């Protein structure tokens, strides 16, 4: 039972108030209206007992002071790891587990958190700082190579900002008003037992075409289009929801899936290029892949040892994101989203392919070439008022 409470929230999973980690006191209930009343009561009680303004509370919510020690400790651990190769092996091996432990100890109760996004941006900035201050002065890296690495880093940040503009939330007025009315009681008009009397011919034809594909979201109380899903973390329904990415603190949906894939690609290529430049400078006699495992004399000087340690740290992060990129490419090739793959596994309707890297549901696939054409030419979803400028963090 303890493991069930530690699991990350799955899309479209029903949540009772006793499962919500943000409340210290819980009440087990089955009624959705009681859940909402209990939530409103807790929020009003919290706001009345607090002297903070809404603006100050928003700033404190996004500040997350508890992640500052992790950001300060990261360069210290890398510098200690550069003192000896045994320390480097120990620290780099334990670092992923240490980061996850600190996250669960300090940020587990927060659905939305800037922890991983701040860690990724801070690591990117720190690696670039070491590249400029430790590698470039050695004279082995030319101006064109420095410009290429800098352009890759700036392009990654720009694409990340573009990705953060919004995944494409289901607009409530258009979908809710045209297909389901303003209340839940009008939703049966889209269902199989709908009456055709009194409805315009065009609207009725549209309802017939969408019958059995649109679904009702009990949380947002709207009708959502095919392949859309509700994200409990963001608190909204996203068109063609793929997954909620903790590294960007946002959902990946129809409006930002292409830019998310492009951000991953540019970051991985820039990181691999930067690692090759660093290893080529501190270990010129070896190739980049060989130098990562065998670079004699690298610990003779602290500067080269620090660059070598940071190359390994960057390789660990790049390897993880390369795996994410590979899974994304395979999912697009089979025209399946991460959410659909999870739901297919839970209902035992999908088939594992390519050593389990992709779950083929066979529902939307139209062939490798056509799947990529559909992905690259799909229209951006209209973003609701949720994805405002404040969502850029």
Jot down its keywords:
elongated; 393 residues; two-stranded antiparallel ribbon; mainly alpha
Give a structural overview.
There is one protein chain. The radius of gyration is 25 Å and the shape is elongated. Residues 1-10, 13-32, 45-60, 174-199 and 381-390 have low confidence and may be disordered. Helices cover 54% and strands 6% of the residues. The relative contact order is 0.11. By secondary structure, the chain is mainly α. The strands form 4 sheets. It has a two-stranded antiparallel sheet with strand order 1-2. A two-stranded antiparallel ribbon has the order 3-4. It has a two-stranded antiparallel ribbon with strand order 5-6. Helix 6 runs antiparallel to helix 7 (143-163).
Write the H/E string, N to C. HHHHHHHHHEEEEEEHHHHEEH
Provide the helix percentage: 40-55%
Q: Helical element count?
A: 14
User: What does the radius of gyration come to?
Assistant: 25 Å
Strand percentage, roughly?
Answer: 5-15%
- Ends distance: 34 Å
Strand order of the largest sheet: 1-2
Structural class: mainly alpha
How many individual β-strands?
A: 8
| 3D shape | elongated
Low-confidence stretches: 1-10, 13-32, 45-60, 174-199, 381-390
What summary fits the major beta sheet?
2 strands, antiparallel
Mean pLDDT, all residues: 75
Condensed summary:
The protein has helices at 2-6, 32-48, 54-63, 68-81, 85-106, 115-135, 143-163, 172-180, 201-210, 257-282, 288-293, 302-333, 338-347, 368-377, and strands at 215-217, 222-224, 229-231, 236-238, 243-245, 250-252, 351-353, 358-360.
